[in-house]
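Appendix B. One record, verbatim.
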Amino acid sequence: MIERPLFILIISFTSFIFFSCESNKEEKNAAKVQNESAVEQNSEIAKNDSSDKDVEKAGIESAKLAYKFKAGETFGYNLRMISQNNQTIIADSVAASNLEETVDYYFEITVNSIDKQQIADLTINVKKITLHSIINGQQIYYSTDSMLPEESRKQFLEFEALHNKPYRIKISNTGEISNVYSVDAISDFILKEQGLIDSLSTIENLKFSQNVIDGMIQPLTQQLFRVLSGRDMKIGDAWENNYQSTVAVFQVENIARFTVRNFIKNDELIIAEIDADLEIDYTGENRVSENGFIYSFDEPNVSGRGQILFDVTNGLLYESETETSMQINFSVEGIASNQVKQNVKREEIVVNKNIIRRMNPNSF
């Protein structure tokens, strides 16, 4: 059986989520929209571009970009995460690997309550997950609708753990998730499958649950709620979300910039078209020594762009498509235990595309 590499899981949940990260915000006016941030012409969202003649302009110049959660309402999203990873290792010979993976998550979301500070309590249920993966030309298919044999469950453990195990979040009207809780069913499932359900102390269980929240549940859920300005925004206005991350040996300052391109009408809805771009600054030594080996890293190459359609009328994300890419090149030199000199170069390119569409959860 072909197994999915661990780094694909890490990429899926923890990398390149700049379009939805919690962060410090800075508003600024932009004189004109930056056309270079538009999504590719062959993307699905590009078909809804306001430059198309069949799209009606909304006739407004500004609107408040904030969520309007209503107690008792239920809505759904399809999140499609497409990952591509190409690696080349050059030593005495050249080895290359290629991985492509598409994962579809189908979320049902219910608004339980809203407090005086406009913090909403939501129940999130992942009702369905499908996967299509190609690893060096060999294909893997998976669906939560299918019954898996016992030996296959661990291969898709993160999907099995999320499927139909509701959890809850606290979220502001700007889209920042402040708390994720009621995840016991998810963490207990993972521990049980790993044979650890009865071997951890209470404190260890709590730490494990928090790791599941931080490493899997929160970054995945935050994808559905883009962090907005929460203020009236005019066409051409922009805001920024800044956050820290680590790429290889570098500390990276990510600067995600969002610009209001237009307001359009879709049936009776007013939709804000928002362009997104990512820039980075980084610090760190690119040459590291460890155990007699010298690791030399090229400068990190990270970029991102996309388009977000926000439903101003209902105060919910309508649709989005964002893409990020990263290239990491490094070399290793040293003397191995057999006293043979080693010189290895590794090149890796990772591209992630996330597509989100609001859907009726009854259609899942």
